[in-house]
Design goal:
It contains four helices and no strands. The protein is mainly α and 115 residues long. The chain has a domain of 79 residues. Helix 1 crosses helix 3 and helix 2 crosses helix 3.
Length: 115
């Protein structure tokens, strides 16, 4: 990267509109939330939050076995780790996830933004 290059991270909030009643989208969002909650519950019991590499070893195959795509899996355990670390640093109690949200980064997006 040259000295004249500036890096910018853009975050977009997207509201999805599903055709008809959107059962498949709601089903995916519930499964995503439940997976994050399960990992939050497991991490909450630990004194120290495991590294990203350790989380990958523990949860990757388990979540892939549930039908999540690879890029969703990494977002799930990263999100759970962020929630636990933020809540513990603020002295809060074990988080209970209620909203149906998912962090999705389309594969290759980073490459498209950099070029």
């Amino acid at each position: 990267m040259s000295s004249n290059t500036m890096r910018v991270r853009a975050t977009a909030r997207v509201e999805a509109v599903a055709p008809e009643r959107g059962e498949r989208l709601v089903q995916f969002l519930k499964a995503y939330r439940d997976a994050v909650q399960e990992i939050v519950n497991e991490l909450w019991r630990l004194r120290k939050t495991p590294s990203k590499a350790t989380l990958h070893e523990i949860y990757y195959n388990k979540l892939r076995g549930r039908g999540f795509r690879a890029h969703h899996v990494s977002e799930i355990y990263r999100r759970a780790r962020e929630i636990v670390e933020a809540t513990k640093s603020n002295g809060g109690s074990r988080p209970l996830l209620k909203k149906l949200t998912a962090r999705i980064q389309p594969p290759g997006l980073q490459d498209r933004l950099e070029h």
